[in-house]
Amino acid sequence: MANNPAARIDPLDPAGLADLFTDDERAVAAAVRQLCADRIDPYVADWFERGEIDDVRGLAKELGSLGLLGMHLEGYGCAGMSATDYGLACLELEASDSGIRSLVSVQGSLAMFAIWKWGSEEQKQQWLPRMASGDAIGCFGLTEPDAGSDPGSMRTRARKDGDDWVLTGRKMWITNGSIADVAVVWAQTDEAENGRGIRGFVVPTTTPGFSAPAIKHKGSLRASVTAELVLDEVRLPADAVLPDVRGLKGPLSCLNEARYGITWGAMGAARSALQAAQAYATERTQFGKPIGAYQLTQAKLADMHLEYAKGVLLATHLGRRKDAHRLLPEQVSLGKLNNVREALEICRTARTILGANGISYEFPVIRHMNNLESVLTYEGTVEMHTLVVGQAVTGLSAFR
């Protein structure tokens, strides 16, 4: 029996997940939720439908003013908050839209983290304070038209010409690309013969030869800026290279940061769809009573709450491990694989509860469902994360 006979379950949080977090952590989540309620939620369905965010730079500055850009990094104007705080922020942002969480994630966990972790002191001083405030926007150029899950096969090349570097190639599906002030670009170098391989470069987007045409006609992540990066003999000074990393270790370390945020963010999309379905089930009447009074609908809601609770528990556990400096890349794969997959299933089930209304932008469900189709495969496909986990538990590689 319950210790408190008067206690009642919270229908929006039947597992009592709020108890997992400290007062300070709940305050972080509440602050982000309020920003989203004021600045994003009233407009995001329209942004998604039009495929365009109004005043994206202004939004970036508001996100920066709350300390959300690079919030888990130390120094250089960054908030220096915990991994769990960052995770909760990602959850709240993606409860509004995956595209908004992507803006923050690419800025902080990819572009800023690359410079913060692997850059020179001059690069950090030049870019990180402005990126933390939202006055400068960054993007991360790794994926190419013919190199996604196998980044080692990238064709973008950087060759030495005197003291300069000259970059040539193309990057694809680059979030923030067409609005970025700086791009972190990864390229093959002639050092590959010496085992030094891939290098990262800090590329101001005003550099001659650099262009970033926007990618249109998307059916997913429409409230997100996506571009192709074209590098046509882009000449950079010697100090444009990230000095402290060589090989795939550099970009993969950044992807690990972003995947951690996705593990939390996907649960935000799931929560939004679940709450929409739960509210609809109590309001929609068929055959003389609310559809939530029927067993099949209750079974759907119970299963959705169960998978959501498990996903948040897993994300929280990984967050605590990250804060204790004990989080392994394979564990991030476990979180990303489970939570995105289950969030997508929650959204699909929510759509069935809403029926035809489930495809209307008057409700968030189809928008989240479409977004998660992209989240499912970016930052590592289901297949790749499955094999990472498989290798971790068997000791045998099945990648090739």
UniProtKB/TrEMBL annotation:
GO molecular-function terms, A-Z: fatty-acyl-CoA binding; flavin adenine dinucleotide binding; glutaryl-CoA dehydrogenase activity
Pfam families: Acyl-CoA_dh_1, Acyl-CoA_dh_M, Acyl-CoA_dh_N
Domain Acyl-CoA oxidase/dehydrogenase middle residues, every copy: 139-234
Cofactor: FAD
GO biological process, one term: fatty acid beta-oxidation using acyl-CoA dehydrogenase
Keyword Oxidoreductase in record: yes
Biochemical pathway: Amino-acid metabolism; tryptophan metabolism; Amino-acid metabolism; lysine degradation
Span of domain Acyl-CoA dehydrogenase/oxidase C-terminal: 246-393
Enzyme class: oxidoreductase
InterPro entries (UniProt xref): Acyl-CoA_DH_CS (IPR006089), Acyl-CoA_Oxase/DH_mid-dom (IPR006091), Acyl-CoA_Oxase/DH_mid-dom_sf (IPR046373), AcylCo_DH-like_C (IPR036250), AcylCo_DH/oxidase_C (IPR009075), AcylCoA_DH/ox_N (IPR013786), AcylCoA_DH/ox_N_sf (IPR037069), AcylCoA_DH/oxidase_NM_dom_sf (IPR009100)
Assigned keywords, A-Z: FAD, Flavoprotein, Oxidoreductase, Transit peptide
Catalytic activity: glutaryl-CoA + oxidized [electron-transfer flavoprotein] + 2 H(+) = (2E)-butenoyl-CoA + reduced [electron-transfer flavoprotein] + CO2
Listed EC numbers: 1.3.8.6
Residue stretches making up the Acyl-CoA dehydrogenase/oxidase N-terminal domain: 22-135
Similarity comment: family membership: Belongs to the acyl-CoA dehydrogenase family.
The name this protein goes by in its record: glutaryl-CoA dehydrogenase (ETF)
Organism, scientific name: Flexivirga oryzae
